[in-house]
Amino acid sequence: MTSAWSYRPQLLHLGLFFAAYVLGCGFAQALAIVPGTGISIWPPSGLFIATLILAPKQSWPWWVLVGCLGELFGNALWFHSPLPAAVLIYAGNALEAMVGAWLVNRTLGRPVRLETLREVLVFVVLGAGAAPVVSATVGSATLAWFGIFSQTFLGAWPLWWIGDATGVLIVAPLALVVIQNWKRKAELSAARWIEACAVGLILLGVAALSLGGYLPFAYIIMPPLLWAAVRFEFKGAAVTLALLALITAIFTISGASQFAGNAENQRHNQIMLQLFLAISAFSALVVAAISRQHQLALLTLSQSVEALRDRERELSQIVNMVPVHIRRLTPEGEPTFFNKRLVDFFGFDLQQLNRPGTSQLAANIETLVHPDDAPSLLQAVRHAVATGEPYSMKYRMRRADGVYRWVDGRAEPLRDEGGKILQWYAISIDIDDEVRAQEALRDRERELSQLVDALPVHIWSWTPAGKLAYVNKRSLEDLGLSKANFEDTVRVAQKLVHPEDAPEVLRASANCLKTGDAFMMRYRRRWKDGNYRWIEARAQPLRDQDGAIVHWYQVSIDIDDQVQAEEALKSSKRQLEQMIDAMPFNILSFTASGKMTYTSKRYLEDVGSPTADIKDFDALARDVAHPDDFPTMFQRASDGFATGQPFVNRFRRRNKQGVYRWIEARAQPLRDADGTIVQWYIASIDIEDEMRAQAALRERERFLWQLVETLPAMIDCAAPNGEPVYRSQQLREFLGYELEELDGKPKSRLNGTLDAGVHPDDVAGVKEQYAHCLTTGEPYLRKHRLRRFDGEYIWVETRAAPMRKDDGTIVQWNVICLDIDGEVRMQEELRLAQERLARASQAASLAELSASIAHEVNQPLAAIVANSHACYRWLSAEPVNVARAKITTERVIRDANSAAEVVGRIRALFKQSVENRTSLSLSGVIAEACNLVAGEALRRRIRIDSDVEGRLPPIAIDRIQIQQVLVNVMRNGMEAMEAVAGEKSLTVRAHCVGSEVQTEIGDRGNGIEFPDQIFEPFFTTKENGMGMGLAICRSIVEAHGGRLWAEKNEPHGARFIFTLPIVGKAAP
Amino acid sequence: MTTDDHVVFIVDDDERIREALGELLETHGMRAIAFGSAGDYVDAEKPDLPACLILDVELPDINGLELQRQIAEGDRPPIVFITGHGDIPSSVRAIKHGAVDFLTKPFSDADLIGAVHTAIYEDRKKRSERAELSLLRQRYLELTPRERDVLPLVVSGLLNKQAASELGISEVTLQIHRRNVMQKMAAASLADLVRIAERLGIPITHSRRVGGN
Description:
By secondary structure, chain A is of the alpha+beta class.
């Protein structure tokens, strides 16, 4: 079922089939000419068969089904048979169609075209003849069975059979045509269309006339029918038959036809009608098939003729176009055909060569072949013709332009089966170029041979085995030999080679023969006069395409003179090189482009051989020069090379041991006659030691210079006359100007410097001492102030000493100028500090002073005490710690010394120094001291009575110290009056007593309890006193050469008196 | 020889004094660390041990008395002053500010060592008190807020009933709190607890006498 379903035809086709089937039923009904039989022409059978023939077998059930529907539909409309009868009748019809289609398809195969007679006959016999038997039998039986129209089986069968057969004959072709050409376009020309129309019209006219009774019988229609079949073949037949059937039907129905008639002969008429249509159809179809067959045969024939013609043309083209001259000769040798190429070659045709009276062959050969070759060719041809043997010959033929060209001619006979010669075929090929090339080759060979003999070299050739194959004349002549004298390498070596060279030559040649390598050697060969001459022998193998050695060729050139010259040159060069190598410097040479050409042996020994990749100056320089020196050196060298100027380079070069040594390299170009540089020669000398010495010197100089420049002293060098020639940086910076700036002024350098620099107060002394030293040559030493660049005067100490030559003459004055400003100022500051201290102690109470002293002393004392305790404990410890005890004892000693130092310092504070004494009047000092204590006196409500002689002579005293004495004594006095009631006054008196100035300070206190002890150090009556004050005071006064003592004052109190000598005495 | 359970700091600008005192203290088995100035002493990392500070009055940067004043706050060691020349006002001032002794250079071995021992003993005592107080504070901090409410009431001597009504809680609850307080404060008895509270500075806020209200 599925397969049937998948083969379902298009619905449109099924629909059309259904419509056509129903239409066919209608048509059959209309043509039921014999009423009551129910049988007539049955078009659906044709439709059915045609459809099934064309449709695939698998789709048949569909068509059968649709046909059944159509038949039943038609039955319902027109036939009104009982349904079982209708179905049975349809079954018969379907069976008929299937049998017919099956038979036709089986016999003719697919697709069915009905184009040949056989096909038409098969179709007619099987489709229209055999198949309706089924339908007729089933249908007639059904009619008889059901008794429809009271038909008998035998009565109905023929009618039925003819009706169906006619239907098949008329409709099936039409259906086939319509279905097969359904979508094909008509390909008829206009003329054919006109003819078709004409045939149609004539057919219609004849049909109308014949069927209408105007013409005696119906078969008059046949001519136009056959015309259509002949001209339009199957399609025409089918269409015409369909038309005929229609016309016949129309006329029959209308009754105008001959086949319409009364009831008696209706049956007969019916049969006649059907026969008419069947015969017409049969005839038309057969004729159409024959016509078609004929047409096809014609077509095939014309195509064959055309193909043959093409082949012939091709062959003739081949014959004419092959690049060979072809001719055909009769068995007698007469030419009968020249191909086009030959004609073109000769420039004229065979006919033009015809000469009456002579043989065509002879004439041809005489005319067309080179006179030298003509007789032999003619003879060869005649011989061939006579014997029947093919010939082959090379000869010259004249071309159309008159040039003779070599050709290779051959001829072969064509024989029949009996061996009789039918024809000769001769060809000739143009081989002119080859022949000429061969000739040229021969010429060349001759020339070469001459050349080989003429060349002033020995040329030999050897077989691969080492046998001598050829010797040129020259060698034979030179060596005075004939070829027979030797035949292989061994013999040559024995006879011709210098005994010293022979073994090497033999070895080398044997090696070359074995390996196939080229041979090259210089050796001495014996000439015919018995002398040996140097030759250079070269041998080269000649190889074939596979690389196998065919021959060895050897050339030997006489190089004796050259060798001699080289020897001489070599010897001279060796001498030169020895000379160069003997020189204590290295030599290199380079081409103008910088390529290294020579290195002396000494260079190689010193520096080592350059590596393989170093081939030019650039690479060599980069390799051996010190990287630091390379840029300069290379720049200079490049400039030198570029300009062609000689140049000198000093740089460090790495030697063989990898150590860099200084060298001096001098480069000089060698020029040829044109001035072009041929070579650069570079000679280099080791200057390492020199450079080292120089460097050391420079270093030393630099060191000295730096020393001078950086010494923290200003240094000046002067000529013997004192003129400065050099000043160190420090001095220049100090002065703020350069030495040269002094030049060009009216003053000399020295005077200019002194005047501008030295403090105006000092300049005279400086100049004087300078002049003195310059004249005497004594060293100079002086402290003075020197003006700095910023205008400030700085204390300097200048020392100068002369530098003398061996003979004592002064070469130079070396002057050093030290900045001692700091020291001078420090001294000044020290002095000021002392003064300040003194001033401070002037104002300080003795108690404070003593407290300060106590602190200073107590510190070491405390340390001493602690250390002593510690020491004691270390010593008392168990076990005794001597080491620690020792340390502590050392500390005790140290601290005790320290304490002693403190005391010493205190003493020093009050130590007298003559330096600070100035000559002044005591009255001023006393006034100052009174002022100092005035404040305290006011607080203590003490009046100070001063009685100082107005004109005291000046005395040399230390003002501060004397002030200290005054203040201390006055304070003591004031403190003594602390507890005294009543008037408190302090009397100060000063006056000259002889050669002294005596000063008295009197108080109104309780007086002195221990007048002898109060001047002892550390004796004190005060709670906080240290007992130092009066002791110090006495020491001061005594230092000034005076005395200090105490007396009782009147009425009470104490009086302290000290004297100072007017003429200053030296301190004790 | 030296012990590590205490240390003596020496601040004196005089190298000799520092050396000598160090040596002396060493002979007495005491470890000494010396500084040249007050600044050095203040900046230095000092071991946390019972200590004594021997301080010179006259120092280069600041006066010894000034240093005493500056470090008065904080756990400073007791100070023994030494001076080159002592005056009465200075010594009075130093002693008033808690100095152990005021020695005038040169001083005797016995005076110094005696003063140092005294100072170290004081410091040791002070430190242990501090440690004890800190322990008490720690314990106090462990009390719950309610227990901290209870503690002053209990040490004030209020009866449980009174205290409970003061806090608005039942007597039983108060008793539980009280027991917890005793336990946490490691008080052996109520008297002990009262003493602890006093040391912690917990005020006695309530009087047991009802009439006090």
